[in-house]
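S.,

Sequence below, as promised.
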Amino acid sequence: MSKTPYPLHTALSLAAAGVPVLPLRRGKVPFGNCRACADNACGGRPNMKSPGTCRCPGVCHAWAAATTDPTVVASPAWAAAWRRAVCVGYHPGGAGLTVVDLDDADAIAWARTALPATRTVPTTRGEHRIYRGAMTSRNAALPGVDIKSTMAYARYLGPGTGTMTDLPDAVRALAVKAPSPVRPATVAVPTRAGGGECPHRTPAYLERGIAMAEQRITEASSAVHTTVYRTFLAVLSKHGRCGCLTDAQVTRLFTAAQSKGETARHCVDAWTNARTTLGL
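The prediction came back faster than expected:
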C-alpha cells in the first residue's frame, strides 16, 4: 500500500482528533474560489457567517471549507489541492481553540509576563500560544499580536509543548475595541484660576513628559517594540485629546525609537495602534 502524502496524513490525523482542517498552498494561504463560487455567486458555504446554499465539493472557501470529515478530506475533489499544498491549515474556533500568534521577540516577551502559560508551538519568527476556548478573531492592538479563532485559520506547525489551559480574560480583552469617546461639537478649554492655557501647554510640564518618554524608550534593554508601543500609548493617553503635542515632539519620540533599532514603519504602526486603542 502506498504511503499517504505527508500533508494529507497530518490532516487526517487532526480531523480524527476533531480539528477542522484545510490545505494551504504556496504562500501559506488558502486556495481561491472556483469559478462557480467566485464573487460569492454560490451564496457562501453553509458554515460561514452568512449561511448560504453552496454545494461545492472543493476546498475553495478558506476557513469555512475546513472539515473533520475524513471522507471529504481524502476525497477526489480535494486531491488536487493536497498535491499542491505546502502545509496544513486548521480552523481553531471550529475545534474550540484560540491561537495567539506572536510574530516577534517583543511580542513573545510581552506574552510571557501578560498571559498564562499554555501549549506553545514555535513559528518561523515567533510562536503560537494555544488556549482552550473560542472567541472572535482579530488583529490585536498590540504590535506583533494576532488572535486566530472563529472565522480564521492557522497553520499547523506540530503538537507543541506544554499543557493547554483555558482561554484567559486577558486574551479576550485584546479583541475588544475601545469605543470612541463621545465628544461635543465644540470643546471649550476651561480657564485656569489666575488665567493661562491648558496646563499641558506649559513648557515645563509638557517637556518633562516628552523627556521621560524618550528616556523610557532609549533605556529599554529588551522588548523594545513593546516598550515603544506602551510609551506611545502613555503619551497619547495624557496629551492626545487636547492637541498639545507638536510635530516636533512626535518626531523626538520616533527618533528615540529608531535609535533602538525600530523602523519608521514600526513607529507609525505603533503610533496608529495606540491611537486606535484610545479611540483617538
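The chain has a mean pLDDT of 81.

Coffee later?
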